[in-house]
## 1
Amino acid sequence: MVEPWLKEIMGSYNLESYESRNSYAAQLHMPGKIFQSLVWWALKSLPDEILVGLDIDFMQQQNPEVDQLFTSTQQVDGLFQGQGYLINEAHIVNRGDSYSVHHLPEDWTDDIFAPSRGARAGRFTHWLHTHPNAPAIPSGADADAAQETPGVDLILGLRFSPSGPLPWFDDVEGKRRILGKEAVREVAAKKASVWTTKSDLSVIGTAPSGHMIHEVQLIAFHKTGLGVNVIFTDENNLPYGWDSIRSN
Ligand SMILES: [Zn+2]
C-alpha cells in the first residue's frame, strides 16, 4: 500500500517531469511501491546514508504509451544498461557517511547476493543513495562513484524532523527536483536571519519511523552527467496523475 500523500506528490512530480521532458536525455520509470520503501529505509537508517542497489526485470518493458508521451527531443537511445525496463528489486547494500557509503568491496556484495541473484551476483543495474536532511544534488564523491554504474545513479534527498544530529544542510548549488510543493520557508524568518523552527515547515507526511517529512527530492543522472527524467508509476505501470498528464 502506497500512502495517499506520497501518491499525490509523485503525481505532481510526474507532471513536472512531463512538462520538462525535453531537458532530459532519457527516462526511467520508478514503481511507487519501491520508492516508498526507499523513503522508509532512508529514515530507518539515520543518521547514516544508505546505498541501495536497484535491479530491473528484463521481461518487463516500461509502458510504451507512457514512454512515447515522455519522449524527449534530446532522447539518447541506448544511453545506459536497462534503459526501457522496469525496476523490480531494491536491496540495501551499504550504509555510512557521504564518503564511505559508496565504498563497498565488490566481493562482499557478491557473497551476500550471489545465492539469490544467480550469475549476475552483486552487480546491480542502478544505484540510489540518500541525502538525509540535504538536497538531492550530487557531490564530487557521488559523481566519481557514478562512473562504475552501468545504469543510472539516483539521489534521494529528504527533509525531516526531528532532525537528530543532522540539521538541514542547504548550501549546495544545483538543479533540484522536489516532490510536491517546496516546504514553506518563512521569508520573515530568513529576513530576521534566525533559524527556521519546526512550525515554519509544512508536514507532507509521516513515516513509520515517526519522522515528519517536510520535503522529498529525487534526481537521476547518467555517469556522463546527462540528466535522466524519473516517472513514478503505479501498479498498472502508469504514472501517478496519468489522467491530468494525458489531458495536458
Ligand atoms: Zn551523495
Note: Residues 98, 129, 131, 139, 142, 155 surround zinc ion (CB under 6 Å).
## 2
Amino acid sequence: MYGPPVAFHFYKHSIVIDEEYCTGCFRCAGICPTKTVIGARVIDGRKKAFVKEPDDCIGCMKCFNFCQIKAITCTRKPREYQ
Ligand code: SF4
Ligand code: SF4
C-alpha cells in the first residue's frame, strides 16, 4: 500500500485535550506518530498537554488509547474539498 491510510484523505480528525484533567504525563505526545500534534505548556504552574498542530493529526487514536484518565476526545468529520 502506498501513501497515508484512506481515512486520512476522507476525514479531518481533531483531538481535544481537557486541561482540567490532564496530569501532564505526556504519554500522548510520546506515542503520537507525527510528533507534532501535541505540545506542552504550563498552566497555573503545572504542565499540561495541548493541541499545537491540529492539521497534522492522522486520527490514529493512539493518544486517546494511551491517556489513562481519558482526558482526550477525538472526533472526525468529512473533509471538504474544493
Ligand atoms: S496522556 Fe492524557 S493525562 Fe497524559 S499528558 Fe496526555 S492528555 Fe494529559
Ligand atoms: S490521533 Fe494519532 S496522530 Fe492524532 S494526535 Fe492522537 S496520536 Fe497523534
Note: The CA atoms of residues 62 and 71 lie 13 Å apart.
